């Protein structure tokens, strides 16, 4: 694997390999006082974040550091990017400066693809940490890791993805990855927050509905998506109140779930809007487990991109 | 050479029909058609090539004044001549905007200086293309350039009242309003055709009905006001349906009320091109679906779409070699238009060479009211001609095109049909891949 640009490009075998590595790394670190493996010593990992993000940037940084890589963080505000340098020039500069891996978060869909194209003739690997509304593959991987951990597997499990699917890169990556891993997906959203032609994406078994209550008793997991503030005022639905009533995961709705069912949220959460506090903090919630698994999954991704290449025949 | 000398085209087939004939050109006019025994200063051997009236492009961005780093009237004229064009209409979205006679006359004069193709400035419909106040259409129409086509292209004249006034006012000037049909409220932030492909790739959608609703509105207004409307770069099957309906209602002489153009790229390409996120494929209106492209080809053959216009839009490398959302929309098209028409229309049997003459030359000349372009190939007519080798194939290389910018979506593609020579009133403006007088 040269780059990780999309979850759509991962088949079940490739995804499972990353998840298995993440499990292995997690167990290797278990009970250790010093969270440090020497695997990526001498490798340089640069994060380029063109959007504000705390959890994803920190997660990648910790992942790199626990693998002993040298991690450098570049943010759009405090660099030549702020002076109007093109993405291409920034990418070539960071690559020439010695980046073995560039992790990019960018508001434009396809930015990671473009980066991989510009760095084609270099040895620099690219990880997509979220591009516009397109994909966020490591989020899908950490969601898969969490579901595997909590449900014992993904194949044959029924998972509801609820909320602003239209604008969500998390949803896009999860639709591809969880389907590849054998899950049966049901998307629950108001029509205005569904992506165009979802039925024509060629995702086997995917269902779309607007009735959350009807789905909850038969799902193994429910993945709540964030509703961004700008959507709330963009006329996509009449009011936060109406949205919350129709699509929010309230305590009443949580009680409709089977006992084993798990609740996920990629964060940051709008408590009281898309998810009730009591649900987010309940034992069903795997939200902090998602964050913890995020570090291990990102360690695994860095391992597969930067270290595993020597193992290949 | 000058118009006073003689030139012979030997062994050419007008409209690709019949046995090869010779064409004697004297004083810029076709003097003989048949077997020419007279010698000439210049002889061009056609070897059976197809002779057509010179092409007329109703929709070109020549970028001068303002963005001479991407195209000038001179470089764009060379690209046009090499593409077989003898007249081009230069869109008004320059810097400064061509919304007054000073700018339109400047463009006209620079075109005359280049002398390779008749460069007709398009005047803006509204001041500064801002859609709020009518530009001085009368002043531009009466100026040296004699502006006959007005458009805010790049922007839609979205305000229905402003559009109504423009259509109505234009009737007194015998000019045509060319609309870039895009309801702006429906295309805020739009990046690509709204459909499964763009949605899957996370690119904000440009819905087909954003175009179709404006075309329907404008057709209704033009019909009831007795005004003339030209629809730029039709891109959807739905717009074709609207146009077919509007044309069927037109009780005036055929096609005088509503006319429409289609670009070569909308005939050939579709939104499967989005997958790479390479902004060379970013264009406004966006590449639509394969079935839209099929409907456009059928409509061009049927005549619901009147003509092909390039929407030639050169852009600097830095404006294309970037992330999709940051890229400017548009693609170069002057030198590839004929080949794309041959590929999409002639080879599949949708158009014969008479049809190519109609959509590339005769209809656009009529729409714009050019009396000496798109003329029959006959004795006494201006020798404004394009000689085409229909069998030649060539590989498109952006860097080899005459435009300063070289953003072509056809890079590396092998396309059929090649312009052997272009004549503007008897002057050879392009021959064997070289433009010049």
UniProtKB/TrEMBL annotation, chain A:
GO terms for cellular component: cytosol. Pathway: Pyrimidine metabolism; UMP biosynthesis via de novo pathway; (S)-dihydroorotate from bicarbonate: step 2/3. It is an enzyme of class 2 (transferase). It catalyses: carbamoyl phosphate + L-aspartate = N-carbamoyl-L-aspartate + phosphate + H(+). Heterododecamer (2C3:3R2) of six catalytic PyrB chains organized as two trimers (C3), and six regulatory PyrI chains organized as three dimers (R2). Pfam families: OTCace (PF00185), OTCace_N (PF02729). Residues 156-305 form the Aspartate/ornithine carbamoyltransferase Asp/Orn-binding domain. The keyword Transferase applies. Its EC number is 2.1.3.2. Residues 2-149 form the Aspartate/ornithine carbamoyltransferase carbamoyl-P binding domain. This is Aspartate carbamoyltransferase. It comes from the Bacteria. L-aspartate binds at residues 83, 169, 226. GO terms for biological process: 'de novo' pyrimidine nucleobase biosynthetic process; 'de novo' UMP biosynthetic process; amino acid metabolic process. Carbamoyl phosphate binds at residues 55-56, 105, 136, 139, 267-268. GO terms for molecular function: amino acid binding; aspartate carbamoyltransferase activity. NCBIfam families: asp_carb_tr, PRK00856.1. It comes from Labedaea rhizosphaerae. Belongs to the aspartate/ornithine carbamoyltransferase superfamily. ATCase family.
Automatic annotation (TrEMBL), chain B:
Keywords: Hydrolase, Metal-binding, Pyrimidine biosynthesis, Zinc. Its EC number is 3.5.2.3. The keyword NADP does not apply. Pathway: Pyrimidine metabolism; UMP biosynthesis via de novo pathway; (S)-dihydroorotate from bicarbonate: step 3/3. GO terms for cellular component: cytoplasm. Substrate binds at residues 61-63, 93, 284, 315, 329-330. One of its GO terms (molecular function) is allantoinase activity. The active site is at 311. Binds 2 Zn(2+) ions per subunit. SUPFAM superfamilies: Composite domain of metallo-dependent hydrolases, Metallo-dependent hydrolases. Zn(2+) 2 binds at residues 153, 180, 233. Zn(2+) 1 binds at residues 59, 61, 153, 311. Residues 48-236 form the Dihydroorotase catalytic domain. InterPro entries: DHOase (IPR004722), DHOase/Allantoinase_Hydrolase (IPR050138), DHOase_cat (IPR024403), Dihydroorotase_CS (IPR002195), Metal-dep_hydrolase_composite (IPR011059), Metal_Hydrolase (IPR032466). It catalyses: (S)-dihydroorotate + H2O = N-carbamoyl-L-aspartate + H(+). The keyword Hydrolase applies. GO terms for biological process: 'de novo' UMP biosynthetic process; purine nucleobase catabolic process. It is an enzyme of class 3 (hydrolase). Its cofactor is Zn(2+). NCBIfam families: PRK09357.1-1 (NF006836), pyrC_multi (TIGR00857). Belongs to the metallo-dependent hydrolases superfamily. DHOase family. Class I DHOase subfamily. Catalyzes the reversible cyclization of carbamoyl aspartate to dihydroorotate. This is Dihydroorotase.
């Amino acid at each position: 694997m040269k780059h990780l640009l999309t979850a759509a490009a991962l088949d079940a075998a490739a995804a499972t390999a990353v998840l298995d590595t993440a499990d292995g790394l997690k167990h290797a670190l278990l009970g250790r006082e010093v969270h440090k493996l020497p695997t990526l010593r001498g490798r340089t990992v640069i994060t380029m974040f063109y959007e504000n993000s705390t959890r994803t940037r920190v997660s990648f940084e910790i992942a790199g550091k626990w693998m002993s890589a040298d991690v450098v963080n570049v943010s759009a505000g405090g660099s030549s990017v702020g002076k109007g340098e093109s993405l291409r020039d920034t990418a070539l500069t960071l690559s020439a400066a010695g980046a073995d891996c560039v992790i990019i978060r960018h508001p434009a869909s396809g930015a990671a693809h473009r980066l991989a194209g510009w760095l084609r003739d270099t040895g620099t690997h690219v990880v997509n940490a979220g591009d516009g509304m397109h994909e966020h593959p490591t989020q899908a991987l950490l969601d898969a890791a969490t579901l595997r951990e909590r449900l014992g597997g993904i194949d044959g499990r029924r998972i509801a993805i609820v909320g602003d699917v239209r604008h969500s890169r998390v949803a896009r990556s999860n639709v591809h990855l969880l389907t590849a891993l054998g899950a049966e997906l049901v998307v629950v959203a108001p029509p205005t927050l569904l992506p165009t032609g979802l039925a024509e994406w060629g995702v086997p078994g995917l269902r779309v509905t607007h009735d959350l209550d009807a789905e909850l008793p038969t799902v193994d997991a429910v993945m709540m998506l964030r509703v961004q503030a700008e959507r709330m005022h963009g006329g996509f639905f009449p009011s936060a109140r109406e949205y919350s009533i129709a699509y929010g995961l309230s305590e009443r709705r949580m009680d409709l779930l089977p006992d084993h069912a798990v609740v996920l949220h990629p964060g940051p959460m709008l408590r009281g809007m898309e998810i009730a506090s009591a649900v987010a903090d309940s034992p069903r919630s795997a939200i902090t487990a998602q964050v913890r698994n995020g570090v291990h999954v990102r360690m695994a991704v860095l391992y597969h991109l930067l270290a595993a290449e020597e193992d290949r025949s | 050479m000058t118009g006073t000398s003689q030139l012979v085209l030997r062994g050419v087939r007008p409209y690709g029909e019949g046995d090869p004939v010779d064409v004697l050109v004297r004083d810029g006019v076709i003097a003989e058609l048949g077997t020419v025994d007279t010698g000439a200063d210049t002889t061009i051997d056609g070897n059976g090539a197809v002779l057509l009236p010179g092409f007329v492009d109703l929709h070109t961005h020549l970028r001068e004044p303002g963005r001479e780093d991407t195209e000038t009237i001179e470089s764009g004229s060379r690209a046009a001549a090499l593409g077989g064009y003898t007249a081009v209409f230069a869109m008004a979205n320059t810097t400064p905007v061509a919304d007054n006679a000073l700018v339109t006359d400047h463009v006209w004069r620079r075109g005359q200086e280049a002398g390779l193709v008749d460069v007709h400035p398009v005047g803006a419909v509204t001041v500064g293309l801002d859609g709020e106040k009518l530009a001085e259409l009368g002043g531009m129409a009466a100026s040296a350039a004699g502006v006959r086509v007005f458009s805010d292209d790049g922007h839609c004249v979205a305000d229905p009242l402003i559009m109504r006034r423009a259509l109505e006012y234009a009737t007194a000037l015998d000019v045509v309003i060319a609309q870039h049909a895009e309801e702006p409220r429906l295309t805020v932030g739009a990046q690509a055709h709204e459909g499964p492909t763009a949605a899957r790739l996370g690119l904000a959608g440009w819905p087909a009905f954003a175009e179709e609703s404006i075309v329907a509105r404008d057709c209704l207004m033009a019909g009831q006001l007795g005004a003339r409307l030209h629809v730029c770069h039709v891109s959807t099957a739905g717009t074709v349906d609207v146009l077919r309906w509007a044309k069927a209602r037109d009780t005036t002489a055929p096609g005088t009320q509503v006319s429409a153009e289609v670009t070569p790229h909308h005939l050939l390409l579709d939104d499967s091109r989005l997958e790479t996120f390479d902004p060379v494929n970013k264009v406004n209106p966006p590449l639509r679906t394969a079935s839209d492209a099929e409907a456009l080809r059928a409509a061009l053959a049927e005549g619901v779409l009147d003509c092909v216009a390039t929407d030639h839009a050169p852009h600097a490398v830095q404006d294309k070699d970037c992330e999709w959302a940051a890229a400017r929309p548009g693609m170069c098209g002057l030198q590839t238009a004929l080949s794309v028409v041959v590929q999409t229309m002639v080879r599949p049997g949708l158009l014969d060479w008479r049809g190519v003459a109609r959509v590339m030359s005769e209809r656009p000349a009529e729409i714009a009211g050019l009396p000496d372009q798109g003329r029959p190939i006959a004795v006494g007519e201006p020798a404004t001609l394009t000689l085409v080798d229909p069998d030649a194939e060539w590989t498109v290389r952006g860097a080899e095109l005459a435009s300063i910018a070289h953003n072509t979506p056809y890079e590396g593609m092998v396309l059929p049909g090649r312009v052997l020579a272009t004549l503007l009133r008897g002057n050879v403006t392009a021959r064997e891949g070289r433009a010049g007088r």
